[in-house]
Structure prediction request, 654 residues.
Amino acid sequence: MDDLPEKERERTAMPIGAATPAEPYELCLYITGMTPHSARAIENIRAFCGKHLRGRHTLRIFDLYQQPALAREEQVIAAPTLVKRAPLPRRRLVGDLSNQERVLAALGLPF
Amino acid sequence: MQHDSKAHLNLETFQALEARLSEAEETLRAIRAGEIDALIVQGTQGERVYTLRNADYPYRTLVEQMQDGAAILSPDGDILYCNQSFAGLATTPLQEVIGGPVARYFAGDAGQVLDTLLAAGCGKRRARLRAGDGREVDVLLSLTSTATNEIERRSLIVTDLTQLSDAQIGLERAQQQSHAKDEFMAMLAHELRNPLSAISAALEVLQAGGSNDAMAGRARAIISRQTRNLSRLVDDLLEVARVITGKVALAGLPLELGDAVHRCVVQLEPRTEERRIELEIAGGPHWIHGDPVRIEQIVTNILSNAIKYSGAGGVIRVTLSAEDNETVLRVIDNGLGISPELLPQIFEPFVQGERTLDRSQGGLGVGLTLVRRLVELHGGTVQASSDGPGCGSTFTIRLPRVAPPCAKPISRGKQPKTLPRRVLLIEDNRDARETFRMMLELAGHEVMEAEEGHRGLELLKTELPDIAVIDVGLPGLDGYQIASSFRREPTGNRVLLVALTGYGTPDARERSRAAGFDHHLIKPIDPEVLRELMVSVPERPRP
Prediction:
């Protein structure tokens, strides 16, 4: 019954017949409306996913202005915050995600 | 103790701890570097989001710069905040709006609408906003209730509907005009059918043998009369199109308006006599600057209208007077009058008053439109007034007054007399030349002819006639070349030049004018137009 508390969901199909389908990345971005860093974080993560995670990720964006209670689940203390839920271990990255190296490191991706 | 536990850490746990530490450091770094917009704090009431300063800037600009008025109200309806657009709609300075009651801008019915909306706490309603300068604006009110930190607020959005209302009015007007055009088409069909059926009936009579000369004569008279009616209808239509689009060139000469009125009255005599309408003219000579043909068109239209809507035995008074810098012509009838609903639109195209029952006075409903445009082209104004149906109407035309020319004014005769003129006719078509020549000679004029351009120009230069009628499509020199080379002669202004063509388009007229022609006639020539032209030739000094 509960609608998914998401502002946006992005799923891209796995390529059929991929040899060893790696576990898809499950990313959640917590933002506060259209504040400047939030807006930039959305742009940056979408560009990043398009470049590094094409076909193997889901991205959900949560607006804490509209649903502040969601912050508790992921212990989010600042916005914007990106949370990698899968693959484990969970990792968080605070900020506008403009530094690609930090994002790569947080997601455990090779440089 | 510490040493012991540390000894028990395996590599995996150590790496996890290291990761969490670096994450915490990274978070602190991001906060310190100002890469965040908000902090989320857990309180007794659940999570609160504290937006950092400047991070709410996009929201502020969104609200401040939006075109709709926005205001935050207390539950009592006091304005706690409003944007620039709200103050703009209220035409009141921002600092005077904030703190005051919103009800100040909604009076009467609108006040009740606002009260209902505030009581409901949310909703959308249309209302009239009364601005500080007293103007009223049609607006849409959209109200929502919010509670922040348990403080109740109302958010009000005010949308200006003026443009929407204007668009609606425009749409209605367009629909009315479209309707008027539909009616016009129906009427046009009717008007065309009448003469056509008369003509075809007359042709039947002729084809049936016309055994009786008198009968054939009558049939021919009918055909001739109805053909003229048809031509006049078509001319009216073309004329209106040209005049409305402003594509007429006016000749400008000093004119005695009384003379023009008199000529029109004479032309309309058959109609006034038929209906036993009395026509009185009063007022001395009044000079204006204008195009004789157009001025007569104006007067004839106004007079025909008065006759059309006057009953048998009616009286039409025409007065001429000078008021300030204007020459004022009034046409006052005691006929059908104009209803107050019709009065404001009477000069619009295709609008007509009640018809006479027999439709004997038909017409296209474009006469007054033509009048208004022509009067405006002369720098004047025209007004209609009426005390209502059955009370008659008054049409008032005001034209700029000019001083009488030095030459003595032409004395006003009952029928303008056509002096014999010397006419040069340059036309290559033999039949056209001969009929034209006959028409002119019957009217007592002296006619010279040329059937080709070079000969025509030579005659024009040597003979210097009063008037030269020149077909524009000629072998050798064409009509435009003749006109422009003759105008360059020292005596080039001595002759009235009339172009004769098959084309009445604004372009064709402009081309004639540019070549130096005074008038532009379209084939076939109307003998009446020709007669008027001969009358209008100014007296020129003989060489």
Remarks:
- The longest helix of chain B spans residues 162-207.
